[in-house]
Design goal:
By secondary structure, this protein is α+β, with helices and mostly antiparallel strands. The chain is built from 20 helices and 34 strands.
């Protein structure tokens, strides 16, 4: 009798273990320890997702996926989405189910109900209750493979599943299977036909592994994101590894709703989106514009000190410019339509890069001119679909803080390192302290030379190492023309935002025929670094509103102090205090006693999140007193009898420190 063949399984720590051919990830996890076996949800074999009961037939690099990891949460959420689909079809006979992926922090599933029915918010509780019954039944997820014809027959009453199957490449069903095979998952249920869903997988071993979930909202969604296709109903939810993690996330959602910049923008009178202007096109009110001005003034001063040269470029340009840059070839769908003027097509610019290339090219450059650092607050326009427009964080018109650095190959390392240090220093000033970076490397399809890509990628890596921030490598995720660093930050409630980008460009120097004269009097292409620090002023503004919940630090606040006279007889003194503070350069407003009583005025100032409410009464207005009452935002009790000179010094120090 022939001995069974053995295979080598390599674990994430590099250790190698011999197992009989056909061993499953469950067996491997059990051989490592009982705790891992109990925690295991799924596995990755040679970086491909598989279920725990899938036999391993060859030497394999294997990772066991556990719940408290990003991969584990993705499996939990995807499996919970399937349970939700089963619950909906149980409660709403005739319901059609489309797709239900895991997404950041949760999942969703799209449905079409019979007879034009619509889910209500009350239905979420019913669906969630049925889901918990399915979890309690501990139904196994059983994978099966079918061919195309079997799949079409199996889902004959589900038109959206049929469309997915019909779109599958007969040679590669990677969306819903492996190779030409389509995979389905069955959940057996007592006394009834099993629930079947079309899915590549993997899933948790059984529904009993789920439970820490919550359905959050119902929304509309066009099938395949196409406005010409049917409008489906999308149920969103979230799922986590345990009740504690779920509770923390739900608290974060509550905080996010309280901090929503769209709501606070109205309450604090910062900005609006008038329908007469158009979707995704914000207008800034005086207070919002003041915050924006302070942000921009600080940024300009820092750039000037760092050796940048300011430029300005027009909002529209001829289509020929965007043909040279490639925007019409690659991004035409996201650009606003052209205007026909004097026989030429003019487009609102989607980026500032092409004009900056022309500024560089406007005269001969020498190696002595490099590095050349150009900077602009340039407003650009991109036609985002209405379904993705989201306040200031996803707008159609926005101002980028664009910089383009032209340098020699020898200067690239130093420029990238100083650029990243500059970015982090400026962001820290705005109260952001938790950073992560993502290094995106060369994709399969790219322009330029491999050696240039490798050298630039290593320069980016060294810049991150010098900055001392954690990072991950997104292999093959760079644009076809450049590797890049994306800087991510965490806000006050732990949400992750992608902000700054540093990108080395191999495309524009060739497309625009950029050159410089070298030290030996030959001509060479400069390296071009694209750098956006805030990304866009509007998006960064929205993030700041939510980070601070509208309570901006004093140096950024649109009104730094409000002066309130207790009664009419104190107004002359209140005016003198206000004039003094304004003369010192502070942003101050006076709210006189004729409007309403002192209490309501203090309450209004606190609702407006003014850093300092200054109250002046009889004792303060006495000749020679020169004092005021100071209500500092967030303090439990006001300070009485604070001398004006003392307060001016304190306020000046606080603003100067930008804390």
């Amino acid at each position: 009798m022939a001995a069974s063949r053995t295979i080598t399984v390599t674990l994430p720590d590099g250790s190698q273990h011999e197992f009989p051919e056909g061993v499953t990830p469950t067996d491997v996890a059990a051989s490592i320890g009982k705790r891992l076996a109990r925690a295991a949800l799924a596995a990755k074999a040679d970086d491909q997702w598989i279920d725990l009961d899938r036999p391993l037939e060859q030497d394999t690099k294997l990772a066991i996926v556990t719940p408290d990891t990003p991969d584990g949460r993705e499996v939990l959420r995807h499996s919970t989405a399937h349970v939700m689909a089963q619950a909906v079809t149980d409660l709403f006979p005739g319901a059609q189910y489309a797709i239900g992926p895991a997404i950041a922090d949760g999942f969703y599933y799209d449905f079409a109900l019979p007879d034009g029915e619509h889910f209500s918010e009350d239905d979420l509780a019913r669906i969630e209750g049925r889901m918990r019954e399915i979890v309690a039944a501990n139904q196994p997820f059983i994978r099966a493979e079918v061919d195309r014809a079997q799949g079409l027959q199996l889902f004959s009453d589900q038109p959206y599943k049929i469309e997915i199957i019909e779109r599958v490449d007969p040679e590669d069903a990677s969306e819903v299977g492996e190779g030409p095979v389509i995979s389905v998952y069955r959940n057996p249920r007592d006394g009834d036909e099993p629930f079947v869903d079309l899915c590549r997988g993997p899933h948790v071993p059984s529904t009993g592994r789920l439970g820490a979930f919550k359905l959050t909202k119902v929304a509309g969604a066009y099938w395949r994101g196409d406005e010409k296709r049917p409008m489906l109903q999308r149920i969103y939810g979230t799922a986590w590894e345990d009740a504690k993690a779920l509770a923390a996330h739900l608290h974060q959602l509550e905080e996010a709703e309280r901090r929503d910049h769209r709501k606070l923008g109205v309450e604090l009178d910062l900005f609006s989106f008038p329908p007469e202007v158009g979707s995704g096109l914000p207008v800034f009110h005086p207070k919002g514009a003041m915050i924006r001005k302070v942000m921009e003034d600080y940024s300009r001063a820092e750039h000037e000190a760092a050796g940048y040269q300011f430029v300005w470029t027009p909002h529209i340009a001829k289509g020929t410019l965007f043909e040279i840059s490639g925007h019409l070839e690659w991004y035409a769908e996201g650009m606003y339509p052209p205007m026909e003027l004097e026989g030429a097509k003019y487009y609102p610019k989607p980026m500032n890069c092409p004009e900056h290339m022309l500024i560089y090219k406007s005269r001969q450059r020498s190696y002595r001119d490099l590095p050349l650092r150009l900077f602009e607050f340039g407003t650009v326009y991109r036609f985002e679909r209405s379904g993705v427009v989201h306040g200031l964080t996803r707008a159609r018109g926005f101002t980028q803080d664009d910089s383009h650095i032209f340098c020699t190959p020898e200067q690239l390392d130093d420029e990238l390192a100083s650029l990243l240090a500059f970015v982090l220093r400026v962001l820290r000033t705005f109260g952001l302290t938790e950073f992560e970076a993502e290094l995106s490397t060369r994709p399969d399809k790219f322009v330029g030379k491999v050696e240039d890509w490798d050298r630039s990628t290593e320069s980016l890596r060294r810049a991150i190492d010098a900055a001392g921030i954690p990072y991950t490598v997104a292999e093959g995720e760079g644009a076809f023309y450049a590797p890049k660093i994306d800087v991510h930050v965490r806000d006050a409630i732990g949400r992750r935002w992608q902000l700054s980008t540093l990108q080395v460009d191999f495309q524009f120097p060739d497309r625009f025929d950029l050159e410089y004269v070298t030290s030996d009097n030959t001509r060479a292409r400069p390296h071009v670094i694209h750098r956006a620090l805030f990304g866009s002023i509007e998006r960064f503004f929205g993030i700041m509103v939510e980070h601070y919940a509208g309570a901006f630090p004093t140096w950024l606040a649109p009104v730094q102090a409000t002066v309130l006279p207790v009664a009419d007889r104190h107004e002359a003194y209140a005016f003198r205090v206000t004039d003094r503070l304004r003369a010192e350069g502070f942003r101050v407003e006076l709210v006189d006693a004729s409007r309403e009583g002192l209490g309501p005025r203090i309450h209004r100032a606190k609702l407006d999140k003014v850093p300092y409410v200054l109250v002046v009464g009889d004792e303060d207005a006495d000749p020679g007193a020169g004092t005021l009452g100071v209500n500092r935002r967030g303090s439990e009790a006001p300070e009485r009898g604070v001398r004006v000179d003392e307060f001016v010094d304190h306020l000046a120090a606080e603003v100067a420190s930008r804390t």
